[in-house]
Amino acid sequence: MTPANPPEVRRRRRPTAWNATAVVAGALAVLTASCEREERSFRVSTPSADATKSVRVTDLVPGPAGPPPTTPNGYEENAYALAQGQTLYNAYNCNGCHAQGGGHIGPPLIDDQWRYGSRPEQVYATLVQGRPNGMPAFGGKVPDQQLWALVAYVRSMSGLVPLDAAPGRLDHMQGAPPPHSIPTTRPVNSRSQIIPTPG
After folding, report:
1. How far apart (Å, rounded) are the C-alpha atoms in residues 120 and 57?
2. Which domains does the chain possess?
3. Which residue, 92, 98, 113, 134, is the most exposed by fewest CB within 10 angstroms?
4. What share of the chain in percent tops pLDDT 90?
5. How confident is the model over 83-119, as pLDDT tens digits?
């Protein structure tokens, strides 16, 4: 008579159950470590204004040209901050001169070359100091957090920020779908009148 569970069979079952548990635990560890999500923080540290006090507006300098110093703007990688910049852009009536970035009285903001520079510190200096012929100076009148949010949004208009953080168009700017993509509804036919539908 043989026992129902000989020792050899029991030994084989335990490692199998242990292996299955280890495989599941390992798979969970790999999935947890490989998940990368956008960090959604509503507070972004404001870049130092000291770095923008000596901002060169142009790249024309005597002597050999070196790489321009840049001020990192964390607002450009934060979708919430960009959306706040878009709200501020409309609230401060930047549309009045820049017309949704296409330019009107003021220069366009969707171009690839800007008169006073497109780096974050240059745009910040333009907002703080103003520019001749119409651009008012907002330094001391608008908080730095709002200025940097405006800088990030203005740069997003010409595609200078990561696309995954850039805001979309405002709802009132969305156009109607193309005419050929609108589903046509067929009129209800009645016995008294048959209405032909365009083909």
Report:
1. 11
2. 72-164 (1.10.760.10)
3. 113
4. 21
5. 999 999 999 999 899 888 888 888 898 887 888 888 8
Q: Which two tokens stand for residue 187?
A: 């009129």
Spatial separation of the C-alpha atoms in residues 26 and 34, rounded to whole Å:
12
Residues forming a β-bridge with 131: 135
CA dist 151 to 77, 124, 127, 161, 164, Å? 12, 6, 8, 11, 17
**Residue with the two structure tokens 């589903």:** 183
Please report the sign of the dihedral spanned by the C-alpha atoms of residue 54, residue 58, residue 63, residue 65: positive
Whose structure tokens read 């979708």?
A: 79
**By three-state DSSP, how is residue 135 classified?**
strand
> Tokens 């990561």 identify what position?
162
| Spatial contact of 51 and 73, defined as CB atoms under 8 Å apart | no
* Residue among 62, 74, 187 at smallest CA distance from 195: 187
- Give the Cα-Cα-Cα angle 75, 92, 114 (nearest 5 degrees): 60
β-bridge mates for residue 135, sequence order: 131
The C-alpha atoms of residue 166 and residue 183 are separated, in whole angstroms, by 31
Please report where in the chains the tokens 């330019």 appear, as a residue: 103
Amino acid at 36: E
